[in-house]
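hey m, so remember when u said the C-alpha cells were messed up on ur end? i reran from scratch. heres the input so u can diff it against urs
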Amino acid sequence: MTTELTPSAPLAHPQAARAHNLKPGLVDATLDEKMAHLRGRLRELGQVIVGFSGGVDSAFLVSVAYEVLGDGCVALTAVSASLPARERQEAEALAARIGVRHVLRESDEIHNPAYRANPQNRCYFCKMALFDIAEALQQEAGQGARTVIGTNVTDLKGHLPGLAAAKERGVLCPLVEAGFTKEDVREASRQIGLEVWDKPAFACLSSRFPYGTAITEERLSKVETCEDVLSDLGFRVFRVRYHDEMVRIELGQDELSRVLDPKTREAILSRCKAVGFKYVAVDLEGYRRGSMNE
C-alpha cells in the first residue's frame, strides 16, 4: 500500500438517471450476470482511480477493480474535516487488507465559500474537489486512468447533486452501468468475503447540518466528537444533527431504547455538553436517510 498525504429493487426513478446521463443496465439480471458485466467493464477501462470512502459501495468497487486490474487500480481517499478520523482509519485498514494502492490527499472544499455556505447542492462542490485531486493524480502518474465512483442504482432516487459534478467531469459509475442495487452490493460483498458488507450507511459530517447553516471546522469537530461517543457506546446506526445550541440524535429503531439506560444517557449528555451544546435531544422517529432534506 502506498499512502500519501499533502497541504433492492429495479430503478425506482429512471428520470434521475436520465438527468445525469446515467444508463442503468442489467437491472433485472442475476447477481452473477451483474458481476460478470462489472468485471468486463473494469477490464475494458484498464486503469481506474476509485473514489474510496471506506463505505460498502466504494469498498466493493475497489475490491473488484483490484481483483480485475491489480496495480491498474488506485483507491483515492480525500481527507478533510468532514471525514471522521475513525472512517479514515477504517479506510486505511481496509485498503491494506485488500492490497490495493491507497492514496490519501488533503481536500480543500471546506475553504470554498460556496461549500461553507452549505447550499442544497453542497455535495457538488465536495465532489468537484475530489475530482480535481483525481485528475492531478492521473497527471502525476502519466496514466490514462478513468475516475470511477461507487454510486449504485438505488442511490439514484436520492438527492445527489454530486452526480452533476460527475457528469461534468466525465466520471463513471460502473455499478450503475452493471445494474447493481444497494442490496446487490451488500450481497455480492458478502459473497466475496468483504467484511464491510453489512456496514451501516455513512455520509460525510457536513450532511449533519441544515442547509444554510455554515460549515466550519469547529462545528464539524463538535459533531464528530458526539458521534464518537455513540460509536464508543456500541451504537451502530446513528447521526448527530447540528441545530445551533441543540444537537439532535437519530438512532436506529432497534437501538432507541438503549438511550434510556442511565449510564448511557449520562455519557451522551456529558460529552455533548462538554463540546458546547446546550441541549441534547433524541429524535423519536429514529434514523432515516436524508432527514435534513425534509
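this time it looks ok to me. The beta strands are 48-51, 73-79, 101-106, 146-148, 238-243, 246-251, 279-282. if urs says something different then somethings off w ur setup not the seq
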